[in-house]
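Allow me, if you will, to draw on your knowledge of protein folds for a short while. I have a record of one protein: its chain in single-letter code and its fold written as discrete structure tokens. I should value your view on which stretches of the chain appear to form regular backbone elements. Thank you for your consideration; the sequence and its tokens are set out here:
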Amino acid sequence: MNQENKMREIKIEKVVLNVGGTGEKLEKGVILLENLTGKKAVKVQATKRIPTWHVRPGLEVGTKITLRGADAEKMVKRLLPAIQNTLKEKQIKDNFVSFGIHEYIEIPGMEYIREVGIMGFEVTIVFTRAGKRIEKKKIKSGKTRRQIVTSKEIEEILVNKFETKILRRRKNIQNDSEWLEKGY
């Protein structure tokens, strides 16, 4: 009996879509994200003062929507074709993947929204294992390496489940024959 450990399974914890900006761009971002997901967008306020950018605490500097469960997986399947199912190796880190979509009209099935115009947004996909919540508890808290989802594991999921192509950095491959063998 060769059963896989259920606690080692990797799943999508959440997908966060966000748009940064102030004033009119912020309002357009709210409209865009709400049209894209059908959920209510949340405005994000600055917590620090940055005088050179005219940012002060309490100023609304962005908007975001967080999707979990089945909605998150559907959104990933919908957004990856907008970037031709291709990610760079540097966009994949331990526990998450981040990428940007330059124009929302590149998303299949998405139509031009006159109030928004042409606009892009960022996407972050967070991966987790069962039992990650225990690490966040106050009692017996501590960091464990076993709960981390490595970038290699994330790459494997993206390639197998979402048919994503990973673009490698040239310096990681020693010679051209290895490059050709791997099909990059």
